[in-house]
Amino acid sequence: MVHHEVHTQGAGSQLNWLRAAVLGANDGIVSVAAVIVGVAGASESAGFIVTAGVAALSAGALSMAVGEYVSVSTQRDTERALLAKERFELDTEPEAELEELAGLYAAKGLSRETSLIVAKELTAHDVFAAHVDAELHIDPNDLTNPWHAAVASALSFLVGAVIPLVAVVLAPAPQRITVTFVAVLFALVITGTLSAYAGGANKMRATIRVVLGGALAMAITFGIGKIFGVVGI
After folding, report:
1. Would you say 167 and 161 are in contact if contact means Cβ atoms under 8 Å apart?
2. Higher-pLDDT residue of 141, 33
3. C-alpha span between 141 and 55 (Å, rounded)
4. Could you tell me which residue, 198 or 135, shows the higher pLDDT?
5. At how many degrees (to 10) do helices 176-199 and 146-170 cross?
6. Are 34 and 218 in contact (CB under 8 A)?
7. Distance from C-alpha of 7 to C-alpha of 182, rounded to nearest angstrom
8. Which sequence spans correspond to the domains of the chain?
C-alpha cells in the first residue's frame, strides 16, 4: 500500500509538469505561428517574416518566464507566510492546535476517540509536519522553485515556437503559408493528445479543440495581414 501511494504521488507530479510543458509548447506554436502567418499575409519578404517570428519567439519566451517566476514566487511567499503562522500558533496555542488537528480527522470520518489518538501520535512524531499536512496540504521541504518554473516555462514555449519558425524558413516561397499551416496543425495534434493524456480528458475532443483554436488564430491573423497589406499601412 505504501509503495502504491508513493508511486501515485510521483505520477501526479510528473503529469502536472507534463501538462505545464504541453501548455507552454502549445502557446509557443500558436502565438508565433499566428504572428508569422499574419506578417506573411501582409508581405512576401522572408526577412520581415523571419524577423517577426524571432521577435515573437523571444518576447513570448521571456514573457512566459517572467510571468511564471512572478506567479510561483507569489505562491511560495504565501505558503511561507502560512507556514510561519502555523508554527507561531503551535508555539503559543498547542492545546488548541491539537484539538483542531483532531477535528480535521474527525471531519474525515474517524470517531472522536480515534481522531484524538491519531492527532496525539502524529503530534508526538512531528507536530509541525502533522499540522501543515492536514491543514495546509503543504510540504515545507518541497516548495516550488520559481527559477525552475520560469526556465521550464520558457523552454517549453521555445520548443513549440521553433516549429512554425523552422517551417516558414525551410518552405519554398510559394508554399510558405501552406507548409506552415500543415506543420502547425500537425504539431497541435501532438500537443492536444498530450494535454488530454495529462488531464485525463477525451483525446479526440481535446485534440480537435486545440487544432481548431490554432487554425482559427492563424486564419484570423492571416486575414488581418492581407487587409493591412492591401491597404498599405
Report:
1. no
2. 33
3. 39
4. 135
5. 150
6. yes
7. 39
8. 22-231
